[in-house]
Amino acid sequence: MFASGTSSPELILGNNGKGRQKTRIEFRFHHRNVLITTRGYKPQTMKGIIGKKIGMTSIFAADGKQTACTIIEAGPNTVTQVKTMDVDGYTALQLAFGEKKEKHATKAELNHFSKAQTGAKKFVKEFRNYSIEKALGETITVDIFAEGDDVEVVGTTKGKGFQGVVKRHGFSGVGEATHGQHDRSRAPGSIGGSSYPARVFKGMRMAGRMGGDRVKMKGLKVVKIFPEKNYILISGSVPGNNGSIVLIQK
After folding, report:
1. pTM of the entire structure?
2. For the chain, what is the radius of gyration of the CA atoms?
């Protein structure tokens, strides 16, 4: 949008420090006022739950088709904090999962959980822009999902320790064993020049610590739900070992 004026414009930004909201940009001229309003970023609502990976199993359809599934004990989660736009600048629900002895919790944690009228919890996670309205102290179970829903699962992969380039990056080895290669079949090979560039480029694939990364698996489906046991069966594999904590999002 263009406007004519005899003097330089005055720029006013009006989002009041609220973050991702509508931002009003106002140009003021002596002879003409022009108001431009941009809607900006619109946050996407979501719902989720904290769970524990139990293991894997198989589900057979009526036609005999087999589907590998991961069993996750999802919930029940307790709402331990409700964040609002007026107080916190954004909307979110803080969920807690897993019981913990009070002697293992700090006084600050016990005071925080007591506001939700619940005991000490092991794991706490915040979900922004939660699509379901819940009050402080209420519970969230697997009923928020339905069979056939597309979900994303976030977890921490298994730690593999210090690994070489063959396992870590899929290198095929150096040369043939019968042509002068002695204990070099799993070596990384050259990592750079000598006189030029006289350094190793950043990002060079080398041996090092492998695993223990935060990974999000997308495109998974809810195959079966057992509300009485708080179990949810999700197609495919989920990062982490049995007993690890995962987040299910939709």
Report:
1. 0.76
2. 27
In one-letter notation, the amino acid at residue 237 is: S
Nearest to 89 by CA among 124, 115, 125, 128: 128
Q: 3-class DSSP state for residue 192?
A: coil
According to DSSP H, which parts of 8-148 are helical? 85-88, 107-114
Q: In terms of Cα–Cα distance, which of 48, 82, 16 is closest to 249?
A: 48
Of the candidates 60, 87, 99, 97, the residue with the CA atom closest to the CA atom of residue 246? 97
Give residue 173's pLDDT.
Answer: 78
Distance, CA of 206 to CA of 169 (rounded, Å): 8
Chain mean pLDDT for the chain: 85
pLDDT in tens, 8-64: 444 444 455 554 444 444 444 444 454 444 455 567 888 999 999 999 999 998 999
Q: Which residues, other chains included, contact 23 with Cβ-Cβ below 8 Å and sequence gap of 6+?
A: 13, 14, 15, 38, 40
Element holding 169 (H helix, E strand): helix 165-169
Copy the structure tokens of residue 54.
């139990």
